[in-house]
Amino acid sequence: MIYFDHNATAPVIPDARQAWLEATEQFIGNPSSPHRIGMRADAALCDAREKFAAILECDPLDIVWTSGATESNNMVIHHFARSLPSTAEAWISAIEHPCVVEATQHYFPGRHRFIPVTGNGVIDLDWLAEELSEKRPGFIGVMAANNITGVLQPWREALAICRQYEVPFFCDAVQWLGKLPSNGLGACDFLSGCAHKFGGPRGIGFLKCPTRGRVRPLIFGGPQEESRRAGTENVSGALSLVAALELRERQIAAGKMQEPGAWRDKFETTLRDSLPDVAIAGAGQERLWNTSAALMPPIGAQRWVVKLDKLGFAVSIGSACSTGKETASHVLLAMGFETAQAGRVLRFSSGWETRRSEWDELAAAAIQVYADAHPVKNQTAA
Ligand code: PLP
After folding, report:
1. Which of 86, 134, 143, 329 can pair with 172 through a Cys bridge, CB separation 3.0 to 4.6 Å?
2. What is the pLDDT of residue 211?
C-alpha cells in the first residue's frame, strides 16, 4: 500500500523510534519522583524542552507537553474562556481545524467570528486589519498551514497586526512543523503542534504559552508542567518528538523539500491534463510542498477513495477527523466551493520518504479509476 495521507498521521521514523526506545529503557522513573531515578527522567525531559525551545526560539518554560494538538488547542481556548472578560470575543480563521472551531464554539457561544479567506484559501489580512481598527477581540487564532489544502497562512503578518493592537495571537502550527522551518514560530503568544505529523509518535504534543506564562489548566490533579497540565509526563514521547523534529529541520535546512514539491506539481499537471474538470484548491497560493487537494471528476469522493484503495493507494477526502462524515469540508466551503464540488475533493499528502515514482503511480492509478468508471462506448454497437 502506498501512503498518501501524511497530513492525517505519518509513520514513525527510525531516529524517533530509536530515541523512544532508548528513553523508555533509560528513564524508567516518573519525572515528579523525588529519588535519583525520577530526577534522571526529569533531567531528560528538561533537556528535551530546552532543545525544542531552541528550535522554536522561545523560553523552555514556555513549553507545556500535552497528549497532542487537539488537547493543546482545547487548552488554549479554554484558557482564554476562563481568563478573559465574559463579553470578550474570539476571532479565528474560517479554515481552522475542527478541534479549534468546535472548542471555540463551545467556549465562546455567540461570541466568536470567523476571519474570512480568499478563494485561494488564505486569510484576508485586510479584513483583519480593518476590523481590528474598530474592535478588539480577546484573542485571534490563525493556523500556520491548512491541513486540507496545504495553503500557507501569513501568520507572521497576522502576528504583527495583533501586536499592533495588543491582541494575543494563537497559531496552530501542526501542519507547518517538520515540513518548513520552525524558527520564529516561538514568537506567537500561543502555539500548538504534535509529533505524529512529522515522524514522531502519536500521543505527544505541546502548547507554547507566553513567556513562563500562567495558562489555565484544562486537566487538574497534579503540579506537573509548572501546574499547567496535570498527569505524568510522556518522557519517551517528548524525546522522540525532538529527535524527529531535529532530523526534519536538518532536511529542511538542506532544501530537501524542493524535489518532492516538484513531483507534487507534476502530479497535479498530469491530473489536469488527463482528466476532465480537475482543479486544485489553493493552486495560486504558496502551499506545503507535500499537499494536493484536488477537485476530481464527479464519481464521488468516497468512491474515489475506495477505488484508489483497491489499487493500493491510501488517500483522504479531508481531515482525518471528518472522514466518514457526509458534510462538506468547512475549509472548502469557506473558499467558495459549492457543496457538491467540495464533496469531490481528494486530499493527497506525501511524506519525506515518498518517492517520485509513487507520485507518478498515483497519477496513473487516478487515471485508471476514471477510465474504469467511464468505459469508452463501443462505436459499432451504438
Ligand atoms: N490541527 C491541525 C491543523 C491538524 O491537522 C490536526 C490533525 O489532523 C490537529 C490540529 C489535531 O492534532 P492531533 O491529532 O495531534 O490531536
Report:
1. 143
2. 65
Lowest model confidence (mean pLDDT) among 76-90, 111-125, 251-265, 320-334? 320-334
- For residue 116, give the nearest of 98, 106, 128, 104 by alpha carbon: 128
| Number of CB atoms found within 10 A of residue 86's CB | 6
Ligand 1 in reach of 192 Cβ (< 6 A): no
Q: What is the mean pLDDT of residues 258-285?
A: 97
Q: Which grid coordinates are listed for 261?
A: 514539491
**Which phi-psi region, left, alpha or beta, contains residue 40 (left: φ > 0; alpha: ψ -120 to 50)?**
alpha
Contacts of 243 (CB under 8 A, 6+ apart): 15, 16, 18, 19, 200
Report pLDDT for 267: 98
Q: Is 195 exposed, middle or buried (0-12, 13-18, 19+ CB in 10 A)?
A: buried
Contact status, residue 361 vs residue 350, Cβ threshold 8 Å: no
> Whose C-alpha lies nearest to ligand 1, atom 13?
69
**67 Cβ below 6 A of ligand 1:** no
Per residue in 141-166, pLDDT (tens digit) is 999 999 999 999 999 999 999 999 99
Name the pLDDT band for 318 (thresholds 50, 70, 90): low
Kindly give the number of the ligand 1 atom that is closest to the alpha carbon of 194.
15
At 117, the pLDDT band (50, 70, 90 cuts) reads very high
Interhelix angle 69-83/98-107, rounded to 10 degrees, is 20
What are the backbone dihedrals phi and psi of residue 321, each rounded to the nearest 5 degrees, phi first? -65, -25
Question: Ligand 1 center to residue 190 CA distance, Å?
Answer: 15
CB atoms within 10 A of CB 309: 12
